[in-house]
Specification:
This protein is of the alpha/beta class. The protein has nine helices and ten strands. This is Amino acid ABC transporter ATP-binding protein.
């Protein structure tokens, strides 16, 4: 199988996700400190940094899986609602792929993918099934549609999770370390799907430790440490000429192994 190539568009992007002055505490711990980040439509932003730097928390505030105390987040011009139906509606526009696959064990692969469109988007079953099969084909597992999650490998389950998010036709996809629970030989099959998504113009915010992937697909790399954005640059700039000592130290540790 040939490795997917990355085609990046350098034209300016219309803002889709805008975070302004976002602060978040866990008790006395200040985990996000005045985060300012704008993600444009069709842009792939990769969040990297040491453990405990706030990457996953930042990702999870975008659809309010984590609350925050101050600042604002807007998605496609709409302020992130605090609760209720408005929040549920907005979450339907924000796909989320977790470290663990979070599939329903008692439902088939096809049922896992159609559940959201039928329940939330009120799509009829025939249309939902057709769309789900197209998406399962896209992620390379249409032949597994009748199986249950436990019958699939971790890499296959994660690809189902991606298809399930895509079935909601989201405006932006959030990935919180999507390959970290996978065996090494399964990582590339998930990353290949994500490369294809990036090429299709999907807006993506990705927390990952996969530096080769970050280098290949990112429009921008955002480096966090101690709850702050320390550096933001193109992959080329960041990996070849990091500006901060913190980033140089981090890259020195991970790129030499």
């Amino acid at each position: 199988m040939t490795e997917p190539q990355v085609v990046r568009d350098s034209a300016p992007k219309q803002p889709l996700v805008v975070m302004e002055g976002v602060n978040k505490h866990f008790g006395a711990l200040h985990v996000l400190k005045d985060i300012n980040l704008t993600v444009g439509k069709g842009e792939v932003v990769i969040l990297i940094g040491p453990s405990g730097s706030g990457k996953s928390t930042l990702c999870r505030t975008i659809n309010r899986l984590e609350t925050y105390e101050s600042g604002s987040i807007t998605i496609d011009g709409q302020k992130l609602p605090e609760e209720g139906k408005a929040l549920a509606d907005l979450r339907a526009d924000v796909g989320m792929v977790f470290q663990s696959f979070n599939l329903f064990a008692h439902k088939t692969i096809l049922e896992n993918v159609t559940l959201g469109p039928i329940k939330v988007r009120k799509m009829n079953k025939a249309d939902a099934d057709k769309r789900a099969m197209e998406l399962l084909e896209r992620v390379g597992i249409a032949h597994q549609a009748a199986k249950y999650p436990a019958q699939l490998s971790g890499g296959q389950q994660q690809r189902v999770a991606i298809a399930r998010s895509l079935a909601m036709d989201p405006k932006v996809m959030l990935f919180d370390e999507p390959t970290s629970a996978l065996d090494p030989e399964m990582i590339n099959e998930v990353l290949d799907v994500m490369v294809e998504l990036a090429n299709s113009g999907m807006t993506m915010v990705v927390v990952t430790h996969e530096m080769g992937f970050a280098r290949k697909v990112a429009d921008r790399v955002v480096f966090l440490a101690d709850g702050q954005i320390v550096e933001m640059a193109t992959p080329e700039e960041f990996f070849t000429n990091p500006k901060s000592d913190r980033a140089k130290d981090f890259l020195g540790k991970i790129l030499t192994h």
